[in-house]
Specification:
- Pfam families: DHO_dh.
- This protein is of the alpha/beta class.
- It has eleven helices and 13 strands.
- It has a single domain, classed as Aldolase class I (TIM Barrel), CATH 3.20.20.
- The strands form three sheets. Strands 3-4-6-7-8-9-12-13 form an eight-stranded parallel beta barrel, surrounded by eight helices. Strands 1-2 form a two-stranded antiparallel ribbon.
- Helix 2 runs antiparallel to helix 3, helix 6 packs across helix 7 and helix 7 runs parallel beside helix 8.
């Protein structure tokens, strides 16, 4: 008899399939449905700093009463956070799987107080969804990286629950930023986040959003860096994300060294049943391979454990495929 149990950021999950932060986890009823479908944990839809500040700043308030303006803007922030805290509390009362809160922020100033409230509301962990688009050509890459690290330090000093950073793949050295987060006692990282990407409608001649959902082929980039990170920063929990559409993809990420896998697009497309199918495929594969636990094969094909680790380092297409016709 196999066990799908896994440990992620110090939390025990009944299986490694985590529903990522999205509209799929925006209400208690949806979270309950994810648990019933077999999810090992959920990450709540993010509390967006940008949205809160935009709502507060867009209010029509008389400039004759600055104290009233400050009060109303503060109330708007508190109300948004209050609704989120209620979601945490209600979800924790309804499900037995870990409930991970999520904040989406672009500064390190607003979130310390919110993080304390999130912890007090009973969240099992906090996932930090942060991205600073480096558009200022007067600032070096290190400026933006330092902002991540400062936020990590402030959050870690404020709360005791596990903290996860959901990273993009834009860093010059992903392994360096993961190591630096580990030194600041961050418990895990998610590789990788999907950010808004623009497109152009040539008929209407306007900017539009590109496709929201991931594709199964997007797995490749995450797979490489999960395998490298699991070896280079072995004490950091790694969650794989982007391109995980099947149970087979879950298995690949576990073999590469992931502690957990985050799913989103596959559930939007296939409904909660997509989770059930992934769990079934993982269990069946383990039985066929003779594995009783995930720890028996986790990382078996990570950077450190394969005969040709350079396979994860190759980046020059023509060098390896120049003979193909």
């Amino acid at each position: 008899m196999h066990s799908l149990e896994t440990t992620y950021i110090g939390l025990t999950l009944k299986n490694p399939i985590v529903v990522s932060s999205s509209g799929l986890t925006s209400s208690v009823s949806k979270i309950v449905a994810m648990e019933q479908a077999g999810a090992g944990a959920v990450v709540l839809k993010s509390l967006f700093e940008e949205q809160i500040l935009q709502e507060a700043g867009s209010l029509e308030i008389s400039h004759d009463y600055p104290e009233a303006s400050d009060y109303i803007r503060a109330y708007t922030k508190a109300n948004s956070v209050g609704e989120y805290l209620s979601l945490i509390k209600e979800a924790k009362a309804k499900v037995s799987i870990p409930v991970i809160a999520s904040i989406n922020c672009f500064s390190s100033s607003e979130w310390i107080g919110f993080a304390r409230q999130i912890e007090a509301a009973g969240a099992d962990a906090l996932e930090v969804n942060v991205f600073f688009l480096p558009v200022d050509n007067n600032k070096p890459g290190s400026f933006y990286e330092q902002t991540y690290l400062e936020l990590a330090e402030k959050l870690r000093s404020a709360i005791k629950i596990p903290i996860v950073f959901k990273l993009g793949n834009h860093f010059t050295n992903v392994l360096w930023i993961i190591r630096e987060l580990y030194f600041r006692k961050i418990n895990g990282v998610v590789l990788f986040n999907r950010f808004y990407e623009p497109d152009i409608d040539i008929n209407k001649i306007k900017m539009v959003s590109s496709e929201v959902f991931s594709h199964a082929s997007d797995l490749r980039s995450s797979l490489r860096w999960v395998a490298l990170s699991a070896n280079k920063v072995p004490n950091m929990s790694i969650a794989a994300s982007t391109g995980i559409h099947t149970g087979e993809a879950v298995i690949k990420m576990l073999l590469a060294g992931a502690s957990a896998t985050q799913v989103c697009s596959a559930v939007y497309k296939g409904g909660p049943g997509a989770i059930t199918k992934m769990v079934e495929i993982l269990g069946k594969w383990m039985d066929e391979q003779g594995y009783k636990t995930i720890d028996e094969f986790r990382g078996k094909l990570s950077y450190a454990n394969i005969s040709d680790p350079a396979a994860y380092e190759r980046s020059q297409f023509m060098r390896y495929f120049s003979n193909m016709e």
